Amino acid sequence: MPLLALQSQQLAATELSVGGAELGIARRPGTETRIAVAFAGGSDDGHPAGRAQLTLQLLVNPTARNGMGLFAGLGAVGSARRGSAGKGWLAVLLGLEAAPGRRNSWYVELGLAGGARVAAGWRLRKFPVWWR
What we know:
About 5% of the residues lie in helices and about 65% in strands. The protein has one helix and eight strands, in the order αββββββββ. A hairpin with a 2-residue loop joins strand 3 and strand 4 (about 45-60). The chain is elongated and about 50 Å long. The termini are close together. About 20% of the residues are buried.
């Protein structure tokens, strides 16, 4: 495919994120945005608990194959714990990921939604065939 044609295409990707007790899946429908959902499990005051987060994220430097990429997001979080009613919050997050234009790299994220949350993990990406 000619270089000019490649430059005019949006870089879509599907991503899988794994970090601690959290598993996420995301879709980058275009070059600079990501729609992500993440699920986490654990315990709260000795009871089994879980949380789900849905965010729309803006990516800075999304095609970088070296260096860092910054991202910020806004969305919603819901949590549930055995023996109590579920809760929901507005979610705001800020993160940093290594080489967002590569097939895999690490990420760190700070989120605010009913309290502060720090996440770190590994992100696997599937890009179109033309993205090498």
